[in-house]
Specification:
Strand order of the largest sheet: 8-7-9-6-10
Mean pLDDT: 89
CATH topology of the largest domain: D-Maltodextrin-Binding Protein, domain 2
Number of strands: 12
Strand content: 15-25%
CATH superfamily of the largest domain: Periplasmic binding protein-like II
Number of helices: 15
Distance between the termini: 39 Å
Number of domains: 2
């Protein structure tokens, strides 16, 4: 699997052009609704789309979906805002964008466990990175876990030399020793470990699970949520069915995701191994009992502390839990 969560300007323009060219607005063909859906080509970002395509769920629910690949969540939020996308996928590092009112989270997806702060051999603690070069794809979950690790040690980014980099460049920089450490993720780190077998793991997602979760989610444009109720209901119905299928058919889901993204199934299996997959019953229960709100509140607190949000917002302002729970209830 290639996890890529940042995107250069040229690639961003190409992706947006592709999406815009394919976009047919909210036009209906009979009872069919056209949908523009963004995704990231990894297990979290693609598995439900791969299932929906294979199982014919889009057609079953009267949807004509054009799926466009992106390499980060913020770019998809931008496309949602301009109307080039209706729906998209984001990882935890981009949750501050819906929390700031730029989109709506319409469905929870998985819990990520792949993020790490790593360092070259001989660097054992986050304190040992003081004054050293640390690479990070800014605005991603790698950035998030680095910030959390620094905070836990009573440090800030001012105590290290942050080197913003694209994910592919981080693999090269770590492998060649050009940087001392990174806030990054698996399975890309597995590639680094082939060149640096003694790479040191300093922090991981589970170190912070008591205070901050790392959920992934699907998002929709504000105008789509407020003005296209039928489109939202149909898409969420598909996502719910695909979530249910994924939990019961992981091996097949890995194969479908690999085929969808033209990846080696072994790489996708490794990727899936760093994901906590949630069943539909679990997501419903965690939504209803307030656990998801607790996750989102913890993330909002983090983003306020990191300066990405000016003030706290309530989860109900950007997570449409009621729409997710009720999706498909009116279907015949």
């Amino acid at each position: 699997m290639n996890i890529t969560r940042t995107l250069g300007a040229a690639a961003a323009a190409a992706a947006l052009a592709l999406s815009a060219a394919a976009c047919g607005g909210d036009a209906d063909d009979g009872d069919t609704i056209e949908v523009q859906f963004g995704y990231i080509p990894d297990f979290n970002g693609t598995s439900l789309l791969a299932i929906a395509e294979d199982q014919g769920l889009w057609e079953e629910h009267g949807l004509d979906v054009t799926a466009s690949s992106f390499t980060n969540g913020p770019l998809q939020i931008q496309a949602l805002g301009t109307g080039d996308l209706d729906f998209g996928y984001i990882g935890p590092g981009a949750f501050w964008l819906p929390a700031s009112g730029q989109a709506q989270i319409v469905a929870m997806n998985t819990l990520g466990q792949a993020d790490r702060v790593v360092a070259q051999p001989g660097i054992e603690t986050i304190e040992d990175l003081r004054g050293r070069q640390v690479a990070v794809p800014e605005g991603t979950s790698g950035d998030m876990i680095l910030t959390l690790a620094l905070q836990e040690a009573g440090m800030t980014k001012e105590d290290i030399e942050v080197v913003p980099m694209e994910p592919s460049a981080i693999v090269t920089a770590l492998s060649s020793g050009q940087v001392d450490g990174a806030g990054f993720w698996y399975p890309a780190l597995a590639t680094v470990q082939e060149q640096v077998p003694d790479l040191v793991e300093i922090a991981r997602n589970s170190d912070f699970e008591d205070t901050v979760a790392f959920p992934t989610a699907f998002v929709a444009g504000n105008d789509v949520v407020s003005g296209e109720e039928e489109k939202v209901d149909r898409v969420l119905s598909v996502l719910r069915e695909a979530i249910d299928y994924r939990a019961e058919n992981m091996d097949e889901t890995i194969e479908l995701t690999a085929e969808f993204n033209d990846l080696d199934p072994a790489d996708v299996e490794t990727d899936a191994g760093n994901v906590q997959v949630l069943s539909l019953d679990e997501i419903d229960r965690l939504t209803e009992d307030g656990t998801v709100d607790m996750w989102l509140s913890g993330m909002v607190d983090y983003f306020v502390g990191s300066g990405q949000l000016p003030e706290a917002t309530e989860p109900g302002e950007f997570y449409t839990a009621d729409l997710f729970l009720s999706a498909g209830e009116g279907a015949e």
